[in-house]
Amino acid sequence: MGSAFSSTRKDGGSSSLLKVGRAAKVVCVALLLFAAGAVATLHHADSSPPAWIPRNRKILRAEAAAAAAGRTRRSRHAMQRRRPASGREPLPRGLAHETSNLEMEPSLAGDPEWRMKQQEAAAAPAAPPPKRKSILAVPVGIKNKDVVNRLVSKFPADDFAVMLFHYDGAVEQWGDFDWSERAVHVAAKGQSKWWFAKRFLQPDVVAAYDYVFIWDEDMVPVFSRAAWRCAWGMVQNDLIHGWGLDYKVGYCAPGDRAVTVGVVDSEYVLHRGVPVLGGGGGNSAGRAAVRRRSSKEMRIFNRRWEQAAAEDKSWKDPYAPEPAREPSSG
Prior knowledge:
- The chain is an alpha/beta fold.
- Helix content is 39%, strand content 8%.
- It has nine helices and five strands.
- The chain has a five-stranded mixed β-sheet, sandwiched between helices.
- Pfam families: DUF707.
- InterPro entries: DUF707.
């Protein structure tokens, strides 16, 4: 049987050696490329520590923090992306309900569309405009039960939805009040007003309400729907006491602050000085620790504000003082 490497040339030379030589060159080049790739791979592998080498705990914590920061940045970018072009949405436009509310269903049976039919009837030309509600959210503890009862009783059920943030975890003890059945109860032990508000008053959930009242024994802020969407974004997930927010709330009411920010003075508000955190006043050490963290949180919030304002070149501070003009010469 003949082969490509056994033929003989007319001049007496053997073409098999020529072909073998060419093949050897190809093989050598392939081997060189393979070796170069292997060296590069080994060099890359040697430049990073093996996974089994134990590393300092501080390094591991730093790496974890860097990874978490990266995830936060990616999630922010994802939230800022525009909606897909028409025809590329995952759901039909008429199906998605992008907002919600805190209204309870009167029964687990019955017509599920009763509320929608009621709204359609109210929207008829001859019908009066539908009445919109506001929402009252209050952090509560069982020790302040009577005070909270007097407070909630002043807000008419036809005008307000009620949400209670139970920071002591006690919920069932509130059942003896008539309004308790229509209130939304959220329990998480040892958490603050702003911790609850950030997680359970998401703007799309309370979009059905004209105003958001977030009251406790000290601050009694009221936000319009648009202002709350802005203020909710300002509330930091990890800064649970909210110190420093009151200095910046005006940014969520653009325009003349004398017009867009107001004080409700038609009714008085009694400051009772009943603490809702830190042991309820009997634990002074606890209160002192809470105040230390609150002060630290305010410094962190101010630092984040300044950093964000410096990095966002497209944002202009509407309340920044105008630079002093240089006196004209001559």
